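Students often ask why we bother encoding 3D structure as a string. The short answer is that it lets us treat folding as translation between two languages. Here is a chain of 157 residues written in the first language.
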Amino acid sequence: MSLRSAQITDLPRVVEIYNAAIPGRQATADTAPVTVASREPWFREFDPQRRPLWLLEREGVVCGWLSLRSFYGRPAYQATVEAAVYTAPDARRTRVGAELLAHAIASDGHRASSWRPVGLLADGVVALGELVGDARARWMAESVPGAIVEGRELPAW
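And here it is in the second language, the structure alphabet:
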């Protein structure tokens, strides 16, 4: 397994993984597949030091990705990010999401202690089943009032 920053040459695989989540209607608000060309401006917004797009590879194949994007353009929100995690269908339930989130938390250093969820969209098959093993991820999942996973409200842990 390796984690690395995404390059523009990775964009087709990033889009492929993203598009695979669209039919379930629970991990994204998009309702139709996106194109590589339409995602190029989105990709250029990432900065490996401040707003990264990380890939997780196993045996040379990208299995998932995590992005940290600016949440809102106003100055008071500079420290606030939107975190997105997507896992390839054939890599779901293999802890790809957990590994990516653990990397994000470890990379964020002192700021990770102040992470607060404001909402949660998750394909339950991909994300929460993997993530709740990590204490902070479990806390995040539990802290989102009324989070819906696979059409059901999150259970009490």
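Translate back mentally: The mean pLDDT is 76. Keep this in mind for the problem set.
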